[in-house]
Each structure stands twice: as structure tokens, then as C-alpha cells.
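thought: fold this chain, then report.
action: predict
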Amino acid sequence: MSHTAEILTPEKSPRRIGVVESDARNKTRTVVIPYVSRHIKYGKYIKKKTVLHVHDENNESHLGDRVEVAECRPISRTKHWVLVRVVEKAPEGSHLTLKEIAAR
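observation:
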């Protein structure tokens, strides 16, 4: 972890684990955190997702990786999260879709 990330990541900030959906931008990743919510009236379970823009100082995460992110001070208009670590690398050469990766 870089010195910048240590400064940006408070020790007690909330941390979440998600899957990298896009790594097209430099030092920025789009991370998706899927969850299931129950409909208030009908009781049916609905799949939802939270999309976060995450600061990745060293560009160490890639598409399909499972990563841990922590909340930090605003870095830009949309980036309020920083990459803590890569929990699990995506399989090399796999052509899995995002839904298949998130289901694991």
C-alpha cells in the first residue's frame, strides 16, 4: 500500500468487499458491491448493487478482481473510497461475465 493510501485511509473507516467492474481509467476503478434486499410490500427478494469509484494509486487491481475498499476524504467529485487490498485475483484468461464473478 502506498504512502498516499495510508494518509487517505482512516483506521476506523468502514470497509467493504466488491468486484472491479472497470479498470479503464488511470488510478480509478469502478467497484460493484452486490446485495439482496426484500421488497417492503411484496416480500420478494430483489438483487441490487452499489457502484463505487475507488482510488487505486498503483493501478494494482484489474477487471474481475475481488477487492477491499475503505471510505476516505473526497479525492474528486465522485471518488470517496480508496483501495485497501486485492483480496482475490481474477482467473487469468477467463471470459467470465461480471454476474458470474459476483456469484462466486
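thought: worth noting. Strands lie at 15-22, 28-38, 45-55, 66-71, 79-88.
final: C-alpha cells above.
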